[in-house]
Amino acid sequence: MFRVSRQIDFCYGHRLLDYEGKCRHLHGHNGRAIVTIEASGLDRRGMVLDFSEIKRVVSRWIDENLDHRMLLFREDPLVPVLASKGEPVYLMDANPTAENIAKTIFDFAAGQGFPVVEVTLWETPHCSATYCPDASPGNNSGATAPATGCCGEPNPPGDEETDP
Questions:
Q1: Hey, which residues are catalytic here?
Q2: Contact criterion met (CB below 8 Å) for 3 and 37
C-alpha cells in the first residue's frame, strides 16, 4: 500500500454547544488539516496522486468554505445574528468539534473521488482529531481504515501555543 498526505493550513472560528469549558465561547484556531490518500499501486507517473491535484480541489474548497469563517452548528442561536451582520458562516449538521470538522473535510474529499483514508485536523500544535471510516462489514464508504489505526500522526511542526 502507498500513502501520500497533503497538509492544508487555514484559520477558522467556532464554538461548541452543550459544552462546559471555555470552548463554549466564540474563539478561533489556526488549523491544519492533513488529508491522507491511499492506493495499492502507482499510476503511470509513479504516483498515488499528484499533490497539486489535492491542493487544487481540497485546498480550494477549504479556502472557499472554511477559511476565515465561523463554523457553527446550524441550530446555534448565534447563526441568525452573525448572518444579519454579514459575517461569513459555514453551517454544520453537528457541533463543530475538531472530530466533526475532520469528517466534513473527509466527506468532501471522498465525494470528489479521492481515495482518502483519513483526515486529521490539528486544532492546536498539541490537539488533533482524526476521522477515518470504519472498515467493518456493512460500511459502504469504500475506504478502509489503516492497519496502524487512525491516530498515528506525529505532532506537526509549528508555532507553540497553549492548549484550549
A1: 23, 68, 123
A2: yes
